[in-house]
Design a protein that fits this description.
The chain has 3 helices and no strands. The chain is mostly helical. The radius of gyration is 39 Å and the shape is rod-shaped.
């Protein structure tokens, strides 16, 4: 330690603070490219995931609509059958219920 620093502690503190600032700036300069690469890789990964999810969502939507359409058609067919042949429908339902009851016993 030189005599000037021993006599002026403020200069020693200011010098240490400047060294700390320089160290922080150097670390930030070195870290910035690494952080930029990591952020870029994260964005690419998110974009790939979104690109893969979009067709799956479209397929699920169209499949859901197709299932809804088919179920509506099945209900319409069953309803028209019951309206055209009510006694046959009731007897068929009773027979199915009887056999299901026997099987589950």
């Amino acid at each position: 330690m030189n005599t000037t620093q021993a006599l002026n502690p403020n200069a020693t503190i200011a010098g240490a603070a400047n060294l700390a600032h320089e160290a922080v700036n150097t670390a930030a300069e070195r870290a910035t490219p690494v952080i930029d690469r990591a952020a870029s890789a994260a964005h690419r990964t998110i974009n790939r995931a979104a690109d893969a999810a979009i067709p799956a969502a479209e397929w699920a939507t169209s499949s859901g609509q197709a299932i809804a359409t088919r179920s509506t058609q099945a209900v319409d067919v069953c309803s028209s059958y019951v309206r055209e042949r009510p006694i046959t429908a009731v007897l068929g339902a009773l027979a199915i219920g009887f056999f299901v009851g026997k099987v589950l016993r």
